[in-house]
Design brief:
about 70% helix; mainly alpha; about 325 residues; globular; 15 helices
């Protein structure tokens, strides 16, 4: 990779990592489901008028929009609102790579290799250590919702793999149009119109900046830049940068929010990142190729193609 593109990949990982701190700040201004709805509304408009028509079937856009936008981000934001720390959330969400491999095996028949199975076991051990650490210092309900969000991300990765979008930015912008109304409806039902109206009436520049960051910087810029890199280089060259997301997430949470990083959390981080690396980057049968080999969407794990939070993500 060219130095400029190496810097761009690291910048995207930093943007996605710091995103968890921004979410934590935003939850002080908005209820979680309303916050998520606003994030997708601003990400979709006006970008949807600039990226052209959808390049995949609507069934994939709607499916990914509901699973990734409504389920994954709704659970993530709610889990963090219930007390899951920003830094820990950025780390635990990476277990989506394990869920992706499991769901790909169940739905697509992609049999994991021994090294991938070992990686799953190591990552799950990291989740166990993180649960012990969180159980001693905070509520486990938020932690459980973040794990559920990671599982939903795994489902959306498999759907995205089936869709095989040729343009990641176009796909993500159209996907962002789907969750807005369902999330608004859920917010009115579960959070109440009074709470939503109070948040909107109290909107200040911090709230505007938070929404702009999670919508335009994290979603539009992040996925657009990541898609550009994946079009120019094999996913195996771009993918390792996704492992920097929890590094930036935990570091920024410690520096900006003052979140402590206990020895158990460091241990969980080492196990999770190592397990995700083994799960995501283990060589597969029949995927060899020379330097000129073109990247094919079905050859690489979706855990690295759409990390997002997302996210939203995803590596939102």
């Amino acid at each position: 990779m060219r130095p400029a593109h190496l810097a761009l990949a690291a910048l995207v990982a930093a943007v996605w990592g710091v995103n968890f701190v921004v979410i934590e700040i935003g939850l002080g201004h908005f209820p979680p489901l309303l916050f998520s709805a606003l994030r997708f509304l601003v990400a979709a408009l006006p970008a949807v008028f600039l990226v052209g028509r959808p390049k995949v079937a609507w069934k994939w856009i709607v499916g990914v929009g509901l699973v990734l936008g409504v389920a994954k981000f709704g659970l993530l934001f709610t889990g963090m609102d219930l007390g899951a720390p920003a830094g820990l959330s950025s780390l635990v969400l990476q277990v989506q790579a394990v869920f992706t491999a499991l769901f790909a095996f169940a739905a697509l028949g992609e049999r994991p290799r021994r090294l991938q199975v070992l990686g799953m076991a190591v990552a799950l051990a990291g989740i166990g250590v993180a649960a012990v650490d969180e159980g001693g210092s905070g509520p486990l309900a938020g932690f459980a919702l973040v794990i559920a969000a990671a599982a939903c991300w795994g489902v959306s990765n498999v759907l995205t793999r089936k869709a095989a979008p040729p343009d990641a930015l176009n796909f993500m912008v159209w996907v962002s149009t789907v969750p807005v109304l369902p999330l608004l409806a859920l917010s009115l039902l579960l959070e109440g119109p009074e709470r939503d109206l109070a948040a909107l009436r109290g909107l200040d520049w911090t709230g505007v900046g938070v929404i702009a960051y999670v919508a335009w910087i994290t979603t539009v810029f992040g996925f657009g830049a990541w898609g550009l890199l994946l079009r120019r280089y094999p996913a195996s060259s771009v993918a390792p940068f996704s492992l920097l997301v929890p590094v930036f997430g935990m570091s920024s949470a410690a520096l900006i929010l003052g979140e402590p990083v206990s020895p158990l959390r460091w241990c969980a981080a080492a196990l999770l990142v190592g397990g995700v690396a083994l799960t995501s980057f283990a060589p597969r049968r029949g995927t060899g190729g020379g330097p000129g080999r073109k990247p094919v969407a079905s050859d690489e794990p979706e855990a690295v193609s759409f990390p997002r939070p997302t996210r939203e993500e995803r590596p939102v």
